[in-house]
Amino acid sequence: MKIHHLRNATMVIESNDKVILVDPMLGAKGTAGPSFTLFRYKPKRNPILDLPANAMDIINKTTHCLITHLHPDHLDTYAETLLKTKSTPVICSVKDEKTLRKRGLNVTQVVDYWKSSEFLGGTIEGIPAVHGYRFIVKLMGNVMGFYIQLPDEKSIYISADTIYTDDVHKVLSDYKPDISVVASGRAQLDLFQPLLMKMEDIVRFINNAPDMVIANHLEAVNHCPITREELALELTNRGLIEKTIIPADGQIMEFN
């Protein structure tokens, strides 16, 4: 299996002839919408950088698209147009099906929470995700993580945009995924608590993960202050850097 990290939370899982695009934000720099903050962090239109040069090579091979939630940094208008043009099969949460169908996307599979279903010869299961601390959660809406087991491949847990919860802990400790993906940018708006794990909870996630961790959602949108360098330093100091991949945009990771 190959995992291509493209930008932010956009990644591609490549397994034999299946190419699964996850949370596509595919537009050019500045096209996904206005700045998510005005005074907490420097205002910039998002995304704050372009896709890497090699991104479209793998995106154009997409056979399926997996969507964790509907925020524009996980599904932008460019991605929607591409998915509709190619009638790409879309897999999403049961709570997002109606909206995505209204937008004209080809929803071919709906995933429910804690229910395993057939997926490309293997299985997929929806995992609850809580997009923020305290009051901000209601404003952020529905999010779903996914636990995926493809034939003859390592299992993968995409935690999606979430804080560290009992549900996250259950997957790490009971399901024991071979690969776990954690959104690590600690996104925060001008008001309220962060939308993603704080540094101490990222550390907790990685410490409790049974095997390799991929840290993404970094340095691509203006409301995510944690940098790759800062995260790497913290994990080095904690003795966790060896089990963590902090991929550069465009990096391809192979798992055998």
Describe, in plain words, how this protein is organized in 3D.
The chain has one domain: Ribonuclease Z/Hydroxyacylglutathione hydrolase-like (Metallo-beta-lactamase, Chain A), CATH 3.60.15. Helices cover 21% and strands 26% of the residues. The chain contains seven helices and 14 strands. The strands form two sheets. Strands 6-5-4-3-2-1-14 form a seven-stranded mixed sheet. Strands 7-8-9-10-11-12-13 form a seven-stranded mixed sheet, covered by helices on one side.
Provide tags for this entry.
7 helices, 256 residues, 21% helix, seven-stranded mixed beta sheet, Metallo-beta-lactamase, Chain A, alpha/beta, globular
Strand content: 25-35%
Net shape: globular
How many helical elements?
7
Count of extended strands: 14
CATH topology: Metallo-beta-lactamase, Chain A
**Amino-to-carboxy terminus distance:** 6 Å
**CATH superfamily membership, which one?**
Ribonuclease Z/Hydroxyacylglutathione hydrolase-like
Give the overall pLDDT as a whole number: 93
Q: Percent range for helical residues?
A: 10-25%
Write the layout of secondary structure elements.
Elements: E1 2-7, E2 10-15, E3 18-22, H1 55-59, E4 64-66, H2 77-85, E5 89-93, H3 97-102, E6 106-111, E7 116-119, E8 122-128, H4 136-140, E9 144-149, E10 156-158, H5 166-175, E11 179-183, H6 199-208, E12 212-216, H7 228-237, E13 244-245, E14 252-254
Parallel strand pairs: 3-4, 4-5, 5-6, 10-11, 11-12, 12-13
Antiparallel strand pairs: 1-2, 1-14, 2-3, 7-8, 8-9, 9-10
